[in-house]
Structure to design on (177 residues):
């Protein structure tokens, strides 16, 4: 059965790194909303109007929708905040007949801020404007207990990916939530 793994976490928490490490182990495609926005000529770090984010989510959903029914698993790389977006992905997985797993990359704000500053000093990805970053951190809605998220609190070293893979593949009952 195909899987839809939805990553959730703030900017600079390590979601994209985790997606790249996890996808080959699940034989999954990665759908990155940041990459989708870039193809559209948008960058979240500059601030994107809500209506454009809605459009990006529509495009990502359309991209993902056919994959599980064709037997292809998907890792969705996004901040996945607010909750209604996570609920939409959960519904899409159910409609596509895919197993759903929400993975919350829970990194403390001090670490996130250090990574943000380090990226400014030696850019490995595009910058996030100060006001956009602060608003993002203030508005971020972490998963609630009833969402049954798998929580990752450390880096993406192979041990963590192995443990997460075991949970994603073996943990029963995540699909129904």
């Amino acid at each position: 059965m195909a899987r839809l793994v939805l990553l959730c976490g703030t900017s600079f928490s390590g979601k994209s790194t985790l997606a790249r490490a996890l996808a080959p182990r699940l034989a999954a495609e990665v759908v990155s909303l940041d990459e989708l926005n870039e193809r559209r000529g948008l960058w979240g770090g500059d601030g994107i109007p809500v209506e454009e984010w809605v459009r990006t989510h529509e495009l990502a959903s359309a991209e993902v929708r056919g994959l599980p029914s064709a037997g292809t698993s998907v890792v969705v790389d996004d901040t996945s905040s607010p909750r209604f977006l996570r609920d939409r992905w959960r519904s899409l997985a159910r409609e596509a007949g895919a197993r759903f797993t929400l993975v919350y990359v829970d990194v403390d704000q001090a670490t996130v801020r250090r990574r943000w500053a380090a990226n400014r000093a030696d850019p490995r990805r595009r910058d996030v404007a100060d006001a956009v970053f602060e608003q993002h951190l203030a508005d971020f809605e972490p998963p609630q207990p009833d969402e049954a998220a798998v929580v990752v609190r450390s880096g993406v070293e192979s041990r963590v990916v192995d443990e997460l893979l075991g949970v994603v593949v073996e943990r029963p009952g995540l699909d129904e939530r």
Summary: The two ends are 17 Å apart (CA to CA). The chain is about 50% helix and 15% strand. The first helix runs from residue 15 to 26. The helical segments are 15-26, 33-39, 50-69, 83-96, 109-121, 130-139, 158-170.
